[in-house]
Amino acid sequence: MTIELRVPAVGESITEVQIGDWLKKVGDRVKAGEALAMIETDKVTVELPAPADGVLTHIAVEKGAMSTVGAVIGTLEAAAAQPKLAEGAAQTPSPAAVVPPTASAAAAPAHVMPSAARVAAESGLDPRALEGTGPGRRVLKEDVLAALSNRPQRSSSEPPRAAPRPSAGPVAPKRESGPVAGDTPAGPGSREERSVPMTPLRRRVAERLVQAQSEAALLTTFNEVDMSEVIELRTRYKEAFEKRHGVRLGFMSFFVKAVVEALNEVPQVNAEIRGDQIVTRSYCDIGVAIGGGKGLVVPILRNAETMSCAEIEKKIGEYAARAKNNQLTLEELQGGTFSISNGGVYGSMLSTPIVNPPQSGILGLHAIQDRPVARDGQVVIRPMMYVALTYDHRLVDGREAVTFLRRVKDFVESPARMLLEV
Questions:
Q1: Domain residues of the chain, as ranges?
Q2: How many whole angstroms separate alpha carbon 13 and alpha carbon 161?
Q3: Which run of H or of E encompasses 382?
Q4: What's the pLDDT tens digit per position in 275-311?
Q5: Active-site residue (options: 183, 276, 392, 397)
Q6: Which of 53, 58, 111, 393 does the annotation list as catalytic?
Q7: Is 393 a catalytic residue?
Q8: For the segment 72-108, what is each residue's pLDDT rounded down to a tens digit?
Q9: What is 2-79+104-147's CATH number, 2.40.50.1070, 1.10.290.10, 2.40.50.100, 1.10.10.10?
């Protein structure tokens, strides 16, 4: 029986998707529930599972092409149920059911990517013994190369391995060794150009950034924060914190708590414009920008006003780990009333973040640097950080924006104020 493979529904408002990697080739046998392909949207990447045991017979939409929810992108021939044999009867498969194994099928199990299988076959390494780091724990080419770099070198007296005997049947064209487009960067002086489809995530980011610039009246105000108190507090309690909560104490939890306090004092920054209405909130859903496997994502800390520092650090750590493997869900990326972007982890000294509409503000954090500052008539060296607040001037006036950023500065410079609520 032929089964049509259709693009699954991946979100209420998502109608268009991009086909990512096909994890199976035409002719491959699959089991029910086994991933056939990756479906990429503007927010998440999901797997297309096999609906039944069978053989992949057709791929209608290739990698990188766009498709729509419900569209047919391939077909699967379901395996027929094996009839019961009389007791003692020989279980001899019919000639049609016998499929001669090929070298590529033996070298590329379901969880090994083709490029990884090729490198492993050339090196005599079994990729199935490796722990994959790709989506769904698939073995990538980088995993094979890492294993080869750690493998002890063979002694010169050891005879070389015999080349594998080619299997019967059609032989694929031999691929010359050397750099392959997309695998390694071109050498010096090369004028090679590559064209790849823009991912749904990147297209969505581009649309939102243009929307923010064209629809909102964006303005940025700056300040600087003395990180001495936070650093001293973190140094004093980081071991006890990690021992009790099982997570490292970072700087982000202090800024999330400071933002929550500042939003309570300046609620306009936590509001949004809907048509000709201003919508205010009694809750703080803080988006934290994280670099993921497909690009920048902003998962949400729901009701951050109720979270402790330990809960914030645990949630951010969980989001960061899952973002690298493109495992964040659509629900975790939707919504948000305010965002924080930390360009300091990449070394940024000063920048102007862009508001994520329909939000009205975003806080940009930057690198901590020792700088000379004046304290009590003396020039001293302090660990300083520039902070930036970009806000929608249609809703937030300059006074509110400056007040908000000043309150964030006050709370971070004196973290005890958040505990004492003063």
A1: 2-79+104-147, 204-420
A2: 56
A3: strand 378-392
A4: 889 999 999 999 999 987 667 889 999 999 999 999 9
A5: 397
A6: 393
A7: yes
A8: 989 988 876 555 444 444 454 444 444 444 444 344 4
A9: 2.40.50.100
